[in-house]
Specification:
It contains 27 helices and no strands.
Length: 529
């Protein structure tokens, strides 16, 4: 009986990738033992033999070294075909692989990197995408540990041949570390130390790689400033950028103004999740999305710890899924409606909801039409506009959050943020995404103080301080039960303190407790179910 690669229920058909590997293994099994044939195979035979050897490596760990020697002896294409097979397995089968096969998969990945096989960089990135956000299962933590160990072991090779892999890994593990730091669990401690070591090593030794990520590097880093090593990094970023010894780096403003490539947004979405989201946003008709929403929530968001992945989903929708005009003009469920539903799906109304809103608005803060994409900011404006008048509390909440960001996100660089947000509004109108901002500035259901502050931003590029805000004495966010249309009367902490006031350090707790009051809006499906 040939061992299986995956754990599949009896009623489920065998995957074609696994089937092709198994059939090759069965037909060539006698040829996989020494002495090996010295005959040069033709292209079909070569592919057949590669598939057989890969199946043998994954299912016969006791003979894996022999099979690898066989592979090294016959390879004629720089391992391109073999690596491509690995890519397909990781992309399509990884969640279903047996534990033993996963272990062998990481073992052969290490070998593929060692010989600098063609495509090994993509293989590492594909494996990183299989790390599930908010998942503290042993299997997920094992994958984190294995990949970090591999990346550190192959540091010099990756730095020379594939530095973009280290950029991707930094993005992934900064994000994953933020999830891990919220749990004080013994089984996470060694992994957290490894993650901190890896991320700090890149930031301190190869800061130029951080610059390639762009502004989302700051968004991820600010979530970790309570960790001593990152607190020190943040202080240097704010007050002493020369400490990073990077030619041409002058300060954090430079990072703010660098757009993050959409490929980074894909890194925190598993391939399965990406497939379901793209189907939802390409084929599901408006009015028929409720059951798809419910299925997606059961599949990916059922555990409360996994809610943090909503932040990554929103970033993916804004930055990496840009539908063509024929989809935009059709009756397919729009991006803004999915984001509206995701916002109302946050059960932990503090940390997660604030991060989701920040992910939604982040490109607004530093928007420059010369380098940024209008599709990144489109969902937020359409969500605010289409929520009027039936779900005006959503509009109030989002608009207030945006204005809080403008006022307080980075006080010392407020001019950059004012310019970015006002530019975003102007471009959205000039390109016809919305006909006018009157729906916000003249809506009687919106909070008068918000409309006044928005009008001030649009007319003169400045936002006055609101009399309704006071610094919180206890350092904790306290929200009044008053409706948002009344004068804002709850205490708050600034989203960020100025660098001088805080000695260059922003408190992550302060930053993410500065969120808007949560209202019972009865908005379970954004009115689209």
């Amino acid at each position: 009986m040939v061992p299986k690669l995956t754990l599949t229920p009896p009623h489920e058909a065998e995957n074609q990738i696994e089937l092709s590997l198994r059939q090759s293994f069965e037909s060539l099994q006698p040829s996989l033992k020494p002495p090996f044939s010295l005959t040069i195979p033709n292209p079909d035979e070569y592919a057949h033999l590669n598939r057989a050897i890969l199946h043998a490596i994954l299912t016969e760990p006791q003979f894996a070294k022999i099979h690898v020697k066989h592979l090294h002896a016959l390879v004629t294409d720089g391992y391109a075909f073999f690596t491509n097979l690995l890519l397909k397995i990781v992309h399509h089968l990884y969640p279903k692989l047996t534990g033993s096969v996963k272990n062998q998969l990481l073992w052969i990945t290490d070998e593929v990197v060692r010989v600098s096989a063609i495509g090994y960089d993509a293989l590492l990135v594909f494996l990183m995408r299989q790390i599930v956000g908010g998942d503290f299962s042993d299997g997920n933590l094992w994958l984190c540990t294995k990949l970090l160990t591999l990346l550190l072991d192959k540091w010099d090779c990756l730095l020379e041949e594939a530095p973009h892999v280290l950029c991707s890994a930094l993005y992934v593990f900064l994000r994953v570390l933020a999830d891990h730091c919220r749990l004080n669990v013994e089984k996470l401690e060694s992994l957290k130390r490894l993650e901190v070591h890896f991320c700090v090593k890149i930031v301190r030794e190869e800061f130029h790689l951080c610059l390639k990520i762009g502004r989302d590097f700051i968004r991820l880093l600010q979530d970790l400033v309570h960790v001593p090593e990152f607190k020190s990094i943040w202080k240097d970023l704010m007050l002493n950028p020369s400490r990073f010894n990077t030619l041409g780096f002058e300060g954090v403003s430079q990072i703010y103004c660098t757009r993050t490539s959409s490929r980074y947004a894909l890194l925190r979405i598993t391939p399965e999740m990406e497939t379901q989201l793209r189907f939802l946003l390409t084929h599901v008709k408006l009015g028929h999305q409720k059951r798809h929403f419910m299925w997606f929530a059961r599949k990916f968001l059922s555990e409360i710890d996994k809610e943090t992945v909503i932040v990554d989903i929103v970033r993916f929708i804004c930055c990496a899924h840009h539908p063509p005009n024929e989809i935009i003009q059709s009756d397919v469920v729009p991006r803004w409606a999915v984001i509206g539903w995701l916002l109302t799906s946050c059960r932990r109304k503090n940390y997660v909801e604030a991060n989701v809103k920040l992910a939604l608005f982040y490109d607004w803060l530093f928007f420059d039409e010369r380098v940024d994409n209008i599709m990144n900011i489109e969902p937020a404006i359409l969500l605010m506009v289409h929520s009027v008048p039936k779900y005006v509390d959503m509009t109030n909440t989002l608009l207030e959050f945006l204005l809080l960001l403008v006022d307080n996100y980075d006080m010392e660089r407020k001019d950059i943020i004012v310019k970015g947000v006002s530019s975003a509004f102007r471009l959205l109108v000039s390109k016809g995404v919305i006909h006018s901002l009157d729906v916000l500035t003249s809506c009687p259901a919106l909070s008068p103080p918000l409309k006044e502050r928005l009008s001030r931003l649009l007319s003169c590029g400045k936002l006055g301080s609101s009399k309704g805000f006071m610094p919180a004495l206890s350092g904790e966010y306290i929200a009044s039960s008053a409706h948002i249309s009344r004068p804002l009367s709850y205490k708050f902490n600034c989203i960020t303190r100025s660098a001088r006031e805080t000695n260059g350090v922003i408190s992550a707790k302060v930053m993410y407790q500065t969120i808007l009051p949560s209202y019972n809006t009865n908005f379970p499906n954004h009115g689209l179910s």
